[in-house]
Amino acid sequence: MRIVLVGPPGAGKGTQATRLAEKLKIPHISTGDLFRTNMSRQTELGKLAKSYIEAGELVPDEVTIGMAKDRMEQPDAAGGFLLDGFPRNVPQAEALDELLQTERMQLDAVLDLEVPEEEVVKRIAGRRVCRNDSAHVFHVTYSPPRQEGVCDLCGGELYQRHDDSEETVRTRLEVYHTQTEPIIDYYKTQGLVVTISALGKVDEVTRRALEALNREGDAA
């Protein structure tokens, strides 16, 4: 299957993308991984992306599209892939359509993870990270530490990252609504959008997604 995964920040896209790709036996292609891989390997696209990032500028769509194209042409993606973080806007979605048409391929589904805005704010703004080890993550509501402000694992101080503040989260949501959400309407005109609730336990959301994708596959 060839799938695009969309959803607001805090919807659990990264977690679900990894799980779904494993279940469906297709590679998980994320924008973050594309940038890190290309920059670490010092590819031409990676060098170009780095020059924009170091200048504090947004990486142009054509650079991101070029990286995605190279990745989708790798042998392990011949039988399908799951795109996470790309396309990020309508011009990128249009470019992806052109690329797929050139390669005589087509998307099977656009999986939309739906989460109420206030739940997104609650999920992200409630995160607390250990100053000693950023892998130690807690949540004031869903997974609170035994002692407030103290890491259960190493006793380090727990703090809220700047990116996790409510103000920053609402800004990120506004960017999502204005830039990325329009691709849902774009793909709805092609009959590709499958919307599921991303509320509940991780396993429940994965099961819900697989069931929806299987229905879409049967319908196709």
From TrEMBL:
What does the record give as EC number? 2.7.4.3
Q: Does the keyword Cytoplasm apply?
A: yes
* NMP: annotated segments: 30-59
Grouped into one coarse class, the protein's main location is: cytoplasm
What are the residue boundaries of the Guanylate kinase-like domain, all occurrences included? 1-214
Q: Where does ATP bind?
A: 10-15, 127, 137-138, 200
TM segments?
A: none
The family this protein is said to belong to? Belongs to the adenylate kinase family.
Per the record, what about its domains?
Answer: Consists of three domains, a large central CORE domain and two small peripheral domains, NMPbind and LID, which undergo movements during catalysis. The LID domain closes over the site of phosphoryl transfer upon ATP binding. Assembling and dissambling the active center during each catalytic cycle provides an effective means to prevent ATP hydrolysis.
| Complex formation | Monomer.
Q: What is this protein called?
A: Adenylate kinase
Species name: Streptomyces echinoruber
